[in-house]
Design goal:
The protein is of the alpha+beta class and 207 residues long. It is 38% helix and 18% strand. It is built from five helices and six strands; from the N terminus they run E-E-E-E-H-E-E-H-H-H-H. A six-stranded antiparallel β-sheet has the order 4-3-2-1-5-6, covered by helices on one side. A hairpin with an 8-residue loop joins strand 3 (47-51) and strand 4 (60-63). Helix 3 (152-164) runs parallel beside helix 5 (189-203).
């Protein structure tokens, strides 16, 4: 997830950040990782934005499915809206500084930690990390689709593996790109077929 790879978002993502009352903010700071910093913002409607810098003018925008949105906000409620400490007292290796913040109306509460013993906190962090990973794949696929047709298959395989491992969040963000690839004969037949299969899997997930 490198800022240099960032393209202006596609038209599907051109709408403004949803104006819901409750908002969640997550950031991870981990020098030496790629990227060393990112943040994710999600409002109560499930509209989200991914940035690799606080002043990023072209965030990756996405929309969580309702089941995803409900799961995330249920965890926030379980964590008392971050009004209590989440840092573990155990001595563990540095895993990056996480910041979780909840805002609604004039209220604001947050918790910062490296590692938490709270299973709900770890699950929520995993949700946000998956949103970040999905945005990373989207950035790579958009770049390949525009500049590297031969590299499209490689990124599609990464997306397929992430979907198989249940690491993709807000999968609908990929549909315009996948449909474009599937319907464009300038891409390899195998890439077009895989893109169509992935789009179908997102639209009609297995129960």
């Amino acid at each position: 997830m490198k800022g240099a790879r960032r393209l202006v978002p596609l038209l599907w993502a051109a709408t403004a950040f949803a104006a819901g009352d409750a908002r969640l903010f997550y950031s991870r700071t981990f020098p030496g990782s790629a990227p060393p910093y990112f943040n994710v913002r999600v409002d109560e409607t499930g509209g989200g934005e991914y940035r690799e810098a606080d002043d990023d003018q072209f965030p990756i925008k996405f929309q969580l499915f309702e089941a995803e949105r409900a799961a995330v906000f249920a965890l926030v409620e379980k964590l008392d809206y971050f009004r209590r400490p989440l840092e573990s007292s155990a001595k563990v290796a540095y895993m990056g500084t996480k910041l979780l913040r909840y805002e609604s109306g004039g209220t604001r509460s947050e918790a910062k930690f490296n590692y938490s013993d709270d299973a709900a906190a770890r699950t929520l962090v995993d949700w946000f990390d998956r949103m970040g990973e999905s945005a990373e794949i989207h950035i790579d696929l958009e770049r390949a689709a525009k500049y590297d047709h031969l590299g499209v298959m490689k990124v599609l395989n990464v997306l397929a593996a992430a979907m198989e491992d249940h690491r993709v969040a807000a999968g609908g963000q990929f549909l315009p790109l996948l449909d474009r690839i599937a319907g464009n004969e300038t891409y390899m037949h195998t890439a077009r077929t895989l893109a169509a299969d992935l789009a179908e899997a997102i639209r009609n997930p297995k129960k």
